[in-house]
Specification:
6-stranded mixed sheet; homodimer; 12 helices; alpha/beta; about 45% helix; about 325 residues; DNA-binding; 6-stranded parallel sheet
Chain lengths: ~325, ~325
DNA sequence: ATCAAATGTGGAACGGGTTCCACAAAAACG
DNA sequence: CGTTTTTGTGGAACCCGTTCCACATTTGAT
């Protein structure tokens, strides 16, 4: 593999000249340009990016940590994030952390090892203290990781309120509410608190089902649904994360109840799968593209050296009416 | 940031000794070990991976090219591939190529720039000639890219046969067949040919609808469905890729026809979404985990320097009966 | 014509690990 | 006790592109 020195020799110029030519920096005469171009073609030269990176101490790679890309929320996030990173000239390293408990730590370590310039993390298994030790560009998606780490999230309180009000407006009197594990500190729990608050305020009964932490697989959701149905619980409204709501709706249909006639559904997140089922789900939709864009914008600034303490970004949610509610 | 030379000086040893200590290669006395460990802690030293990579001309990064990670087939593939790459000690760079026409080329160029050690590509927009020029580790997912590039795919012919036989066994007489664009050379077209062949053999009428090339978004599928329904075409069976089949089924249900009573459905791919809809889809399922594992195994070998010309891998498909067919 | 500024160039030093070689001391062996 | 072998060490050279500095030539201004 030819190096810049080979090119310089072949072209009969100095390495500095070749380097300046390659980077369009400083002065290079037309004559030298031509000679270098010739030599490059002749030797089929491509600059070694690694040497560049070593010098600049930058790789232009951002690690994106998610529990699991096959989860629609995260696959959409990753999709948008990759496109946006590309726009900024970054490459994306993808890290699924669900599979192995210390994968998260290992990927964070790549920051110190100079393999990646920054990390966008949508993951929460690690102790917050681990993050505080790292003084490098990190952006948290929907997660509090300490003072210095900016958070990108949606207004979950508003989301909880919208869901509650929708079910109330639909005349629900007994609502099944699937909650994410509340042990973990995350902005998204706000939706549960607010949902419960509004429901109580309107004297609507809620049955809370607490989901296990970090179980995002469909198998688990199905198990939960079967569990609920076998308990013979009656309900006329459901609020839960997309896949949970969908599994629950399917079981409802299978047990010959009408949707939205007998039971209304409001899903949380509003990923594409809520539009893929029949009837289409009414959903509180998170602006995933916005979350991705903001995350990338922030990481770009951080990598660029501008310090942004507590520059959190909160985006608005929106209710998308489907056919699982009548109003 | 401390370097290995700082550590050597602090510990009062040579850089070679520190390097040998870090890599557990060659001789290092207990005494030296202790001194180095001390110095490392004192200086909070982490080796710079970039310098290592420059020397070894390896980054341990594999690029995975897919049109779009939010497509369930690819998100599952990427998910499994990431896990498997991790097992081999590789990191994954994710590249969505759909957004921009020259993204594919740009990502391939990273091979030459030494940014990635290998590429697994599930993408087809580029001219095959482009690939032939690159003599670096490349594995193709479901795609022919020339003599030297190994292909990982399933037995699509078998898949087409299974689908056809299922619809025939269900007594279908007029079947809607959504086909991927056949201009592009890809193993997966086999399923269409075989499907048509078997149908014709059994005198079952098929209506072929050719889909546009590389349009994988839900919006397009919905548009196609609306188009078909507005044409007033009658059919009692449908064969198409997961999302196409699902969109078609939803429209069928909305137009008050019964599934599987009036219309039977067989989906191709069998990603999780076919199990998420109600009724569950009967599907020809691709062993996505197997595809991912084989792709990674091959790229690992290629990166390891063992040449494998034409070592293609063909996996078996399987029919998973759901509730959109009666047999 | 004179001097300053602009244009152009080569190469050493650098970034931070790795490897290899020369050399030394200790251990093993006869 | 002499001689291999093993253990242990330091440092130069290398991987390859970048930057900076010293120096040369040309252009422009006065």
């Amino acid at each position: 593999m030819a190096s810049i020195r080979d090119v310089a020799k072949e072209a009969g110029v100095g390495v500095g000249t070749v380097s300046r030519f390659l980077n369009d920096s400083g002065y290079v005469s037309e004559e030298a340009r031509a000679k270098i171009e010739n030599a490059m073609n002749k030797l089929d030269y491509t600059p070694n990016e690694l040497a560049r990176q070593l010098f600049h101490k930058k790789t232009g790679i951002i690690a994106v940590l998610v529990p699991n890309v096959s989860n629609p929320f995260f696959s959409e996030f990753v999709d948008y994030a990759e496109a946006e990173l590309y726009r900024y000239g970054f490459k994306m390293m993808l890290c699924n952390t669900e599979k192995e408990s210390n994968a998260e730590l290992e990927y964070l370590d790549m920051l110190r090892r100079h393999i990646v310039d920054g990390v966008i993390t949508g993951v929460h298994s690690l102790d917050v203290e681990e993050y505080k030790k790292i003084h490098k560009p990190i952006v948290a998606l929907d997660r509090y990781l300490g003072e210095d780490i900016p958070v990108v999230a949606v207004n979950h309180k508003e989301g909880g309120r919208l869901a509650a009000e929708t079910l109330i407006a639909n005349g629900c009197r007994k609502v099944l509410h699937f909650r994410g594990a509340t042990e973990v500190e995350s902005p998204y729990h706000e939706r549960h608190y607010e949902f419960e608050r509004v429901m109580k305020q309107h004297d609507v009964e809620t049955i809370c089902y607490d989901l296990e932490w970090n179980r995002l697989d469909s198998g688990y959701y199905r198990e939960v649904v079967r569990n609920v149905f076998s308990m013979g619980i009656e309900f006329d409204g459901v609020f839960g994360v997309d896949r949970m709501a969908i599994e629950c709706m399917n079981e409802t249909i299978r047990s010959h109840r009408k949707v939205p006639g007998d039971v209304k559904f409001v899903a949380y997140d509003g990923t594409y799968i809520t539009e893929m089922v029949e009837p289409k789900m009414t959903a509180v939709v998170q602006p995933i593209e916005g979350l991705a864009k903001e995350s990338v914008r922030l990481i770009h600034r951080l990598v660029g050296g501008r310090i942004y303490k507590n520059k959190n970004v909160i985006l608005n949610v929106e209710l998308r009416k489907g056919d699982t509610t009548v109003v």
